[in-house]
Write a structure and sequence with these properties.
Elements: H1 2-17, E1 39-44, E2 46-49, E3 55-56, H2 58-61, E4 65-72, E5 78-84, E6 90-91, E7 95-96, E8 98-108, E9 111-124, E10 129-131, E11 135-138, E12 142-150, E13 170-177, E14 186-191, E15 194-200, E16 209-210, E17 217-224, E18 226-236, E19 239-250, E20 256-262, E21 264-265
Parallel strand pairs: 1-10, 2-11, 12-20
Antiparallel strand pairs: 1-6, 1-7, 2-3, 4-5, 4-8, 8-9, 12-17, 13-16, 13-18, 14-15, 14-17, 18-19, 19-21
Length: about 270
């Protein structure tokens, strides 16, 4: 038994002599195995303009966030950072150090992604923040609005009650920006392919139109994108007995917002 103890002690001594060890008896480089990867961050400032260079906001075009894709130039590895559109400038979460190619996209629910020029040879260093060059997203702010008006549960807006209609005799429409201010657009009225005239919005003195039937289409072929509030009134003689007050987001990039607006009967209004 004593002979075995001597051999074991001798082996331990030999290991200690030939090993560059820490005080805890493990090799000095053993702890490097689980050492965290070196990381740094990037920060970005951005702005939005229309196609003429006029500054616009994220709300104007329905933009929600900015996506930043980083791809290492020496490999296929990469990372993605995402920033809320309204929070410029923003800083990323820690990203592995290296040299990257960086791409940028502006995104939104109804927005086709808008790109900005990429940036190459961006170096991320350990425990440091790298400021990317500011980028600008140019967005087409032209949109289209297509509406239909219905007065449920009736089968017609304009026919009298004896013919299962709502009995509306006249209508007014006003359209304002969500932040205020009248929008003097012209709605084109059509029934199938048949023109029915136009309706010009004038908020201070709304035009009184004939009844707009539920199978008509009201179209603004071109208008600025962004959030709006619309107010529709249906009259029985001179009394506003039907109403709709809705919020609408007109999309950018030439896209159309198509909406059917339900008119609500104003129960309790004298004359209705």
């Amino acid at each position: 038994m004593a002979f075995r103890v001597v051999l074991f002690a001798t082996a331990l001594s030999a290991f200690a002599i030939g090993c560059d060890c820490n005080g805890d008896g493990f090799p000095a480089d053993a702890r490097m195995i689980d050492a965290p990867e070196a990381r740094g961050t990037v920060s970005l400032a951005w702005s939005l303009t229309d196609l003429t260079g006029r500054p616009i906001t994220c709300v104007d075009v329905g933009a929600n966030f900015v996506s930043v894709e980083l791809r290492k130039q020496a490999s296929l590895q990469g990372a993605v950072a995402s920033f809320s559109c309204a929070n410029s400038p923003s800083t990323s979460q820690p990203i592995e150090v290296g040299t990257y190619e960086v791409r940028f996209e502006l995104r939104g629910q109804a927005l086709t992604p808008v790109t900005a020029p990429p940036q190459n040879s961006i170096v991320i260093t350990k425990d440091q923040n790298t400021e990317l060059a500011p980028v600008t997203f140019a967005v087409d702010t032209n949109g289209m609005l297509v509406l239909a008006l219905v007065a449920p549960p009736f089968t017609s807006n304009c026919k009298p009650g004896s013919m299962q209609g709502a009995g509306i005799t006249a209508m007014t429409i006003t359209l304002t920006r969500a932040g205020g201010g009248c929008v003097p657009v012209t709605f084109v009225r059509t029934r199938g392919s048949t023109p029915r005239g136009t309706y010009m919005v004038d908020c201070s003195s709304p035009e009184i139109s004939t009844c707009i039937e539920n199978d008509e289409t009201l179209t603004v072929p071109s208008m600025a994108s962004g959030p709006y509030q619309i107010h529709v009134r249906g009259k029985l003689s001179a009394v506003e007995c039907w109403a709709n007050d809705d919020s609408l987001q007109v999309p950018a990039q030439g896209k159309a917002r198509t909406e059917t607006l339900n008119l609500a009967f104003q129960t309790g209004t004298p004359g209705c």
